[in-house]
Amino acid sequence: MTERPTLNVAVLIERQKQPSRWEDWRLRIADVLLDDGRFGSEPRTLRDDGINAQILHPGLTVTLYRDEGEGYHLNLTSGAPVWFVMWRIDEADPSRAWPELVTLSYNEAGRLLDAQERVDNTPLPADVREWLQAYTDENYRPEVKQRKRPASFKTPERR
User: Fold this and answer.
1) InterPro entries under this entry (predicted)?
2) What is the chain's percent helix, strand, coil content, to nearest 5?
3) Mean pLDDT over residues 14-28, rounded?
4) Mean pLDDT in the chain?
5) Hey, which bits of 21-51 come out as E strands?
6) What are phi and psi of 66, to 5 degrees?
7) What is the pTM of this model?
8) What SS3 class is residue 79?
9) What share of the chain has pLDDT > 90, as a percent?
10) Is the pLDDT score of 158 beyond 80?
11) Do residues 76 and 135 touch, judged by C-beta distance below 8 A?
């Protein structure tokens, strides 16, 4: 069995207190960073002035799977490849959020959205894009699209 390619990443979440009179908290995925181990293993606050905060969540792994090739291809050919981050907000404390999963597959992100999960994206750096492109080129071949003839051009027994 061959080993699957992986990347270790950390997700940076930004939190803003009362950005408008209708919101108590605004949370967003600010960035996904390659994690070489220097971030540790536990979430940590990088900055918090009482209004704005940045919390870094290390220890997530992005794994590439051969059967997700189409999803990687769609991400790469979208014009602006991205990291897809599935994350959750604590219902008991809406000022707290954490990432659950990071993927590079457009299809996997779509399945998560279909399941009513919260999925956001951030731009993919050039070096990760090249790594994903090399993997996709080696492991995925798009199906050749064939023109479908209108039924009116087929003989009655073939309709």
Assistant:
1) DUF3305
2) 25, 40, 35
3) 93
4) 93
5) 23-34, 44-48
6) -60, -40
7) 0.86
8) coil
9) 84
10) no
11) no
Q: 81-113 burial string, b = 16+ CB within 10 Å, else e?
A: bbbbbbbeeeeeeeebbebebbbbbbbbbeebe
CA-CA distance, 127 to 105, in Å (whole number)? 17
Q: Tell me, what's the pLDDT at 103?
A: 98
Instruction: Classify 132 as helix, strand or coil.
Output: helix
> Which tokens in the block code for residue 69?
């090739």
Q: How confident is the model at residue 114 (pLDDT cuts 50, 70, 90)?
A: very high
The tokens for 87 are: 């994350």
């905060």: which residue's tokens?
53
75-104 pLDDT tens trace? 999 999 999 999 999 999 999 999 999 999
Distance of CA 143 to the CA centre of its chain: 24
The Cα–Cα gap between 39 and 11 comes to 11
User: How many angstroms separate the most distant Cα atoms in the chain?
Assistant: 74
Contacts 24+ apart (CB under 8 A), 93-100: 94/24, 94/25, 95/15, 95/17, 95/24, 95/25, 95/27, 97/13, 97/15, 97/27, 97/55, 98/13, 98/43, 98/57, 99/11, 99/13, 99/29, 99/57, 99/60
